[in-house]
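**Tokenised fold:**
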Amino acid sequence: MFPDYKDIFNARGIDYHQAMMEYPLARQLEFKNIISISDLEDNQTVGDLPSGGCYLNNFVKKKVKTISVETSVEFARNAKESENNLTITCEDISKIPLLSETLDRAISLAGSHHLPSQPAFYREVHRLLKPGGLFCLADVREGSGVDGFLNVFVDRYNSMGHQGEFLNQNTTIELEAAGFEILYASPIPYTWNFNSVEEMAYFCKRLFYIDRATEQQVIEAIEQYLGYQVSENQCRMNWELFFFKALKKE
């Protein structure tokens, strides 16, 4: 198993990106949830940390400047720079080459579980935020069905393995130790949406690099750990992340 985020996604980021490009709206509710709790306003500077391919920017409706920070060269290669989106690649997500108090908002969506040190990352986010700025963090909750799907099934059938360090009872303590006040902390259930069960299985195989299982095995694992519902021309796969909104005090 590769040790951290950078090595993991340098190796399999191309498959992850391919899944996201073929089904760009599959995880739409996930991005909308993190944006919703972020209270974005026009003209803010928003950090996407780590950006995981810079997909967040596709769902932001406000006129903000996004700084997408990556340690994976493969992910950064797929990023789309524009007037309102700057991409930064660095070696260590806990040592980002930006001045202190640069950001109005910091968003971290589903990437922190592969970082070498979550507390060090939280301290760096605190440094980068302006006083009164918000850190919005969402990732897998330890002990959840998503945890089982990733750290049991994907770990077994991904040739690189998968052992994420998920959010748990210590996360609040670590965020407060970094200087944050917790404003919101709760799991949010939602669905990843597809046109068919086959699309769901294909997407998950590519996104999670499940190279040692058939699509039928993927479907059976989704049913076991997550559950899904099929209606006319739609397949909705259950998913959940734990969301934090944390304030850097004035």
